[in-house]
Amino acid sequence: MIDGIKIKCNGTTSHDWQSNILLKFYSSVDEATGEILTKNKVAFYRGLSFHLIPSTVSDSVHCFIKGSLAVFYNHGLNNAYDFDFSMLVNTIQELEKLFAVNPNTAIIQTFEAGANLNINQPIKQIISGLRAYQNENFVLLKIEGANVGRMISRTEYALKIYDKGKQSGTNKNLLRLEYAFKKSRHAHKFSINVLADLLDVSKLEAVKMALREFWANVIFYD
């Protein structure tokens, strides 16, 4: 499943979003003086944040989307479920329809690909047995201040294994495997550049194989 993402929405204008009744934008304000501290604006809708950021070299405004596609599809609730390909297709179509996001020009800067595993053992037991991947030891993974699992962090990507039920507050016994693309140039190695590339099954298959290779080569001590 494709989940957390950051997109630079080339082809989308600030007017497209500021005139949209679904989005209410906010700016940072000094509470004491009422002074606007930044020209950046942000709006929130169903698990996604919409950012308007003025360019530093021109009069244009950049449009960014950050957040969880799975939470967006789930109407802002959580992403502790199997967000399949048909749901991804519907989500991208909805972003295009509601927020003028052109999948062919919207550049993916970061994204996460993951899988939720239903297992018989307690998730805590699995996580405590994780030792290493290739030549690196796992380190603690914290999400919103809570220890939820282990991870391998590299410059361009991160590999994560964590308790999805704990992280999402659903108490489901789900083990989450995640391949986080931290740099767009790493995504380019999988021929993923724009949002429309996530609709190409062959490209997603390559990402899935990388995730499977990670899981198959984890060193685990029971």
- General form: globular
Average per-residue pLDDT, rounded, comes to: 90
What is the tally of helical segments? Answer: 7
Largest sheet: 9 strands, antiparallel
Share in β-strands: 35-45%
**Structural class, from secondary structure content?**
alpha+beta
Helix content: 25-40%
Tell me how many strands there are.
12
For the termini, the CA-CA separation is 28 Å
Radius of gyration: 19 Å
Strand order of the largest sheet: 2-3-4-1-5-11-10-9-8
| SSE series | EHEEEHHEHEEEEEHEHHE
Low-confidence spans: none
Describe this structure in words.
The protein is globular. Strand 9 (146-153) and strand 10 form a beta hairpin. The longest helix is centred in the C-terminal third of the chain and has 16 residues, at 201-216. The protein has helices at 14-18, 69-73, 85-99, 123-128, 164-168, 184-188, 201-216, and strands spanning 2-9, 41-45, 48-54, 61-68, 106-118, 130-133, 136-137, 139-143, 146-153, 157-163, 174-181, 218-220. The protein is 26% helix and 35% strand. The protein is built from 7 helices and 12 strands. It is an alpha+beta fold and 222 residues long. The strands form 2 sheets. Strands 2-3-4-1-5-11-10-9-8 form a 9-stranded antiparallel sheet.
